[in-house]
Design goal:
The chain is α+β, with helices and mostly antiparallel strands. It has two domains: about 60 residues, Wheat Germ Agglutinin (Isolectin 2), domain 1, CATH 3.30.60.30; about 40 residues. Helices cover about 40% and strands about 15% of the residues. The protein contains four helices and five strands. A three-stranded antiparallel beta sheet has the order 4-3-5. A hairpin with a 5-residue loop joins strand 1 and strand 2. It starts with 11 loop residues before the first strand and ends with a helix. It comes from Prunella fulvescens (Brown accentor). InterPro entries: EF-hand-dom_pair, Fol_N, Follistatin/Osteonectin_EGF, Kazal_dom, Kazal_dom_sf, Osteonectin_CS, SPARC/Testican_Ca-bd-dom. Belongs to the SPARC family. One of its GO terms (molecular function) is collagen binding.
Length: about 130
């Protein structure tokens, strides 16, 4: 068997062509072996997959698409329900992001005072008064 020592990346399986030359093709997610509930995984698309075989087989089939590039293993276990954002949360997001960024810049400024300097003079002046 020419596929015996031929390695394919996750989500692909080896098949031999008519000349016996090995090639990798996408794993059919439906052909993945059955898994136990504790082997479920959550993808970055917030979908629960029966296992990594199914996740990476799906990713392979979506290769070359935006969804395929973005699909990765998020965490082990079934996906948790993520409720949609409320209108209030959507409205508050830019303000909270601004406050978070301001806090990061102030931390850099304070760290910069005690070190050789991470920020440029212009950045240091801007952070010393973040509302300029």
């Amino acid at each position: 068997d020419t596929c015996q020592n031929f390695h394919c990346k996750r989500g692909k399986v080896c098949i031999a062509d008519k000349q016996g030359k090995p090639h990798c093709i996408c794993q059919d997610p439906a052909a993945c072996p059955p898994t136990k509930d504790y082997e479920h995984v959550c993808g970055t698309d917030n979908k629960t997959y029966d296992g990594t075989c199914q996740l990476f087989g799906t990713k392979c089939q979506l290769e070359g698409t935006k969804i395929g590039r973005q699909l990765h293993l998020d965490y082990m276990g079934s996906c948790k329900y993520i409720p949609p954002c409320t209108d209030y949360e959507v409205d508050q997001f830019p303000l909270r992001m601004r406050d978070w960024l301001k806090n990061i810049l102030i931390q850099y400024y304070e760290c910069d005072l005690n070190t050789s300097g991470i920020l440029t003079e212009k950045q240091r002046n801007k952070v010393s008064n973040p509302f300029q």
